Amino acid sequence: MSTQKTAIVTGAARGIGAAVAKRLADDGLAVAVLDLDADACADTVKAITDKGGKALAVGANVADEASVQAAVEKVANELGAPTVVVNNAGITRDNLLFKMTVDDWDAVMAVHLRGAFNVTKAAQKYMVDAGWGRVVNLSSTSALGNRGQVNYSAAKAGMQGFTKTLAIELGKFGVTANAIAPGFIETEMTAATAERIGVPFEDFKKASAAQIPVNRVGVPEDIAHTASFFISEGAGFVSGQVVYVAGGPKD
Ligand SMILES: NC(=O)c1ccc[n+]([C@@H]2O[C@H](COP(=O)([O-])OP(=O)(O)OC[C@H]3O[C@@H](n4cnc5c(N)ncnc54)[C@H](O)[C@@H]3O)[C@@H](O)[C@H]2O)c1
Question: How many Å is the maximal CA-CA distance in the chain?
Answer without folding.
Answer: 57
